[in-house]
Write a structure and sequence with these properties.
single chain, two-stranded parallel sheet, alpha/beta, globular
Length: about 100
């Protein structure tokens, strides 16, 4: 995703945060900001999401009802929820390319 836009990433898992921080230093990528946040205890509020053009979120198996409710109440025009796997991440640069997104 950082190949096409600035990324703000939130996670509770330290290994995930370290991986995102490492990605922030890859040449040619847009800025990546990784922040530790328990989205179960403190989901992003709709007013926090106003600055985003799109949100991609990977809901845990246990669900993310409060975060999903806040996303639905936001004005973010594009919201994608799916499990992020290595296969999805490998495919994402092609599928998120601006040319691929034109109708």
């Amino acid at each position: 995703m950082a190949a096409f836009a600035k990324v703000d990433a939130y996670d509770l898992d330290e290994a995930a945060l370290q991986a995102m921080a490492k990605a922030a230093h890859v040449e040619g990528m847009h800025q990546v900001t990784a922040a530790r946040r328990d989205l179960f205890a403190r989901p992003l509020r709709p007013e926090e999401m106003e600055r985003y053009d799109a949100i991609v979120f990977d809901p845990p198996r246990a669900g993310a009802a409060e975060q999903a409710t806040a996303l639905a109440a936001s004005l973010v025009p594009v919201i994608v929820a799916f499990p992020v796997t290595r296969k999805v991440l490998r495919a994402m640069p092609r599928s998120c390319a601006p040319a691929a997104m034109k109708s």
